[in-house]
Specification:
This protein has three helices and seven strands, in the order βαβββαβαββ. It is an alpha+beta fold. The structure holds coenzyme A.
């Protein structure tokens, strides 16, 4: 699979895609990260346009910030640029909404995600002790 074959789009009312996101969510996170109202807040990535969901980015608007509450790529499709492509689409959405920043929390030991966020211009603003049951988190922010 190559990045040029991937379609990233809002989930809309696609319940099958939502179920596929939930399945992916359950494989990568200890707690669900998807919002109850997914229709406006989740971007999904599919290989070949009509294939199953292979990645998603879930967001929540908090004042002038767009918070990323979940970002995941299927393990079989990592390191081809999909995580970065999803992040950039989230940033475009935040700009369209005239927001000030995009923010997120990431476990301090999640070196893969931290490397991705750093590469896309996110910077750690504070360390939150005990944020997760299993440890601390960085709050990372990209100002727009
Ligand atoms: C984090 C995650 C979304 C990255 O997705 P991805 O599609 O593999 O990311 P990309 O291919 O766009 O990676 C872009 C860059 O990020 C960095 N990166 C990504 N994964 C990395 C890893 N495992 N180790 C080191 N750097 C990594 C690299 O700089 C990479 O560029 P390169 O491949 O040219 O070296 C994916 O690993 C994932 O779903 N992990 C489990 C869920 C998760 O941790 N989500 C984040 C929660 S806050």
């Amino acid at each position: 699979m190559q990045l040029r074959d991937v379609l990233i789009e809002p989930i809309g009312g696609d319940l099958v895609a939502f179920a596929q996101c939930c399945a992916l969510d359950a494989t990568v996170f200890p707690h669900p990260s998807l919002p109850a109202d997914a229709t406006h807040a989740v971007l999904v990535a599919r290989a070949s346009g009509s294939g199953p969901v292979i990645g998603f980015a879930a967001t929540q608007r908090l004042g002038r910030r767009l918070a990323i509450i979940g970002l995941a790529v299927d393990a079989k499709h990592r390191r081809v640029g999909l995580g970065g492509a999803l992040l950039r689409r989230v940033m475009e959405r935040a700009e369209d909404l005239d927001l000030r920043e995009v923010g997120l929390h990431v476990a301090v030991q999640n070196t893969a995600a931290i490397a991705l966020y750093d590469r896309e211009g996110f910077r750690p603003v504070r360390r939150l002790e005990g944020f997760y049951r299993r440890g601390d988190a960085w709050e990372m922010v990209k100002r727009l």
